[in-house]
Specification:
The complex is a heterodimer of chains A (408) and B (206). Chain A is mainly β and 408 residues long. Chain A contains five helices and 26 strands. Chain A has a single domain, classed as Neuraminidase (6 Propeller). Helix content of chain A is 12%, strand content 41%. In chain A, strand 20 and strand 21 form a beta hairpin. Chain A is globular and about 85 Å long. Chain B folds into two domains: 70 residues, no CATH class; 134 residues. The longest helix of chain B is centred in the last third of the chain and has 28 residues. The interface between A and B is large, with 59 and 58 residues.
Chain lengths: 408, 206
């Protein structure tokens, strides 16, 4: 008799389970970037645009000092009023208990940063998430379909960064105040070892595709489908122990390319691994390497309205002492258009680290870049639409430094 | 809603810690605890784990355990709780074998081996859900009704989004359950060998 009751209960659970599965949203295509209302944005940025009447040179600023000895992992998002909000973590050292996630906004008129404020510190995070948290890291902002800001960040309870999990907070007021954090569950092994680094990719149904990665037992990329504060699906972008920090370039509603930071062993090629999808991220295939040197360091990228793609990375096989901006389009291969930092002439001890670049565009034509400068400061650079357009026009004429290579 | 989910998760973890300590005390005690004593002990210990104790400790004790273990699966929790508080037959060895078999097939692929990720099936794969129902049905056919109840409750918890995860795997399996099943299998095999050896000694001819 008890068995019959148990089986009836199972039948009930089965019906509810099937209804739950049936209520899940179908996988939507990628939302293709539509050009922003350019005139409005330009009007809001007179200082950035009018440094020179012809082609303004890139503008360099520094993110505000928090007084902390160590800073890292800066990211950016465009605000509705044309300003830019930056996020980064700072503390006595990377991974210390006193590390907090900070934010500041760039006023496009005065080209100056606001005073930094704390978005999240370790104690606030652990109280809201009801679990012990040892350290925070890697903030990545996103614009939700309803206009709110969502900030993904990494928390670690035990071990190093390999023990990370992702949480997110939401802001209704463009980042002035934030909700309590919610934890994203992404791994079956105590939810260990999932991190974020690169910008999200929106779907047409308003949900977000979050490129994430594991770096513990395996080192591989994963594409998380996120709805609010929870993962509703995920797909593997690479496998094994050789590629992390996926950066996604969406080329159509169904097609996208992901570039990775390589984490291969010493005897393997130090180049940028590439995966592709032809079904809006439902499945990914590894397609070999982009023949650009990568010393196991993060890659940032951006697709502009005119079809040009830009990358910022350390194009060397070891060290992070040189940072360059590269460009390509459908007709041209990747070319270095500007060397941003280069300490090659210095000795090993004197060389600084230029790492963790992050790129966004406010109007689809320009580019804001932030990166870690010697772990002590975060440098911001602004490339105007005119400057990038000129670089794009010169692309075909300059020397080809890289050609694509088929997978082995 | 998020606050309620976090509080319930801490309640679950507090009860789990209390149950584990009570089981440990029971193992060390020469005499069997009556049910009322077990319930009282669990109640007291669970409260100790749930409420912040102060003394410079920022969080309740269960939050520190949760920080390390994450949320346990519903199957693990219910098996643990019921094994202490309900008089029922032990978990069948075949169920433990099945758990280990599934875990060995699941974890390597879910943690990055190859491009197939069985963990992703847990978000809403109908074939995977049918396989889980079939597994529960087998428990019923094997006359282990508790298994059917536990899996059915896990499915309902997943559909109700009881925990932070939206993945059915997280309601059914966790590494602690797999390790327990593996240890229990070795324990059963060891006992069987020992009993066989003893019976051989007792009934040795001549």
């Amino acid at each position: 008799m008890s068995r019959v009751i148990a089986l009836c209960f199972l039948l009930l659970a089965a019906v509810i389970g099937f209804l739950h599965i049936d209520s899940r949203p179908v996988w939507a295509p990628f939302a293709i970037n539509t050009p922003a209302p350019l005139e409005e944005v330009l009007e809001l940025q007179p200082s950035l645009k009018s440094k020179s009447p012809s082609v303004p040179s890139p503008i360099t600023t520094w993110l505000p000092d928090t007084g902390a000895a160590s800073v890292h992992a800066a990211s950016l998002i465009a605000l509705k009023d044309g300003a830019v909000r930056a996020f980064w973590f700072a503390g006595s050292r990377e991974g210390a208990a006193d590390v907090s996630i900070y934010t500041a906004t760039l006023d496009p008129k005065s080209v100056s940063w606001s005073a930094p404020t704390v978005v999240m510190d370790r104690v606030s995070a652990e109280k809201a998430l009801s679990r012990y948290i040892a350290k925070l890291g890697n903030p990545v902002p996103a614009r939700m379909a309803d206009g709110r800001l969502q900030l993904f960040f990494v928390t670690v309870s035990i071990g190093g960064w390999a023990g990370s999990s992702i949480s997110s907070v939401i802001s209704d007021d463009e980042g002035l105040t934030w909700s309590a954090p919610q934890r994203l569950i992404t791994s079956p092994l105590i939810n260990l070892s999932t991190l974020v680094k690169s910008p999200v990719v929106p779907f047409t149904d308003g949900r977000l595709g979050l490129p994430a990665y594991h770096e513990w037992i395996g080192r591989f990329g994963e594409f998380l489908r996120v709805e609010g504060g929870q993962v509703i699906d995920k797909r593997r972008m690479s496998s094994g122990r050789s590629s992390i920090q996926p950066l996604v370039f969406v080329s159509s509603a169904q097609e996208a390319t992901a570039l990775f930071r390589q984490t291969r062993s010493a005897d393997q090629q130090k180049q940028v691994p590439v995966s592709q999808t032809q079904n809006a991220g439902q499945s990914w295939q590894s397609v070999g390497d982009l023949p650009i040197a990568n010393p196991n360091s993060a890659v940032a990228g951006l697709l502009l309205n005119d079809g040009a793609r830009i990358l910022v990375l350390n194009n060397i096989e070891t060290g992070r002492y040189r940072l360059v901006i590269m460009m390509s389009d459908a007709k041209s291969q990747w070319q270095v258009i500007e060397v941003l930092e280069d300490d090659e002439a210095l000795s090993d001890e004197q060389r600084k680290e230029f790492s963790y670049p992050y790129l966004i565009s406010v109007d689809g034509n320009d580019a804001h870049l932030v990166y870690t400068w010697d772990r002590k400061k975060i440098r911001h650079r602004y490339f105007s639409g005119a400057w990038l357009k000129r670089a794009h026009d010169q692309l075909a004429a300059t020397e080809v430094v890289a050609t694509p290579e088929e997978s082995k | 809603m998020n606050n309620l989910m976090q509080t319930l998760a801490l309640v679950e973890m507090s009860i789990t810690c209390a149950v584990l300590i009570t089981m440990l005390l029971q193992k060390m005690s020469p005499q069997s605890f009556p049910l009322l004593a077990k319930l009282l002990l669990v109640l007291i210990l669970a409260n100790l784990f749930f409420w912040p104790l102060g003394l410079g400790i920022e969080l309740p004790l269960s939050a520190y355990v949760r920080g390390v273990t994450g949320d346990l699966s519903i199957v693990t929790m219910l098996l643990l709780w019921t094994s202490l508080l309900l008089a029922s037959r032990p978990v069948p060895l075949a169920f433990k074998f099945a758990l280990v078999f599934v875990a060995i097939g699941f974890y390597p692929f879910a943690l990055g081996l190859g491009m197939t990720d069985p963990y992703a099936w847990g978000y809403g794969s109908i074939p995977f859900f049918i396989a889980v129902l079939f597994f529960a049905l087998l428990c019923g056919l094997a006359n282990w009704s508790k298994g059917v109840w536990i899996i059915a409750i896990a499915i309902l918890a997943w559909a109700a989004h009881w925990h932070e995860s939206a993945n059915l795997w997280d309601y059914l399996l966790d590494p602690f359950l797999a390790i327990w099943a593996l240890v229990a299998i070795f324990g059963a095999l060891f006992r069987r060998r020992r009993d066989k050896a003893r019976s051989g000694y007792l009934f040795r001819p001549g």
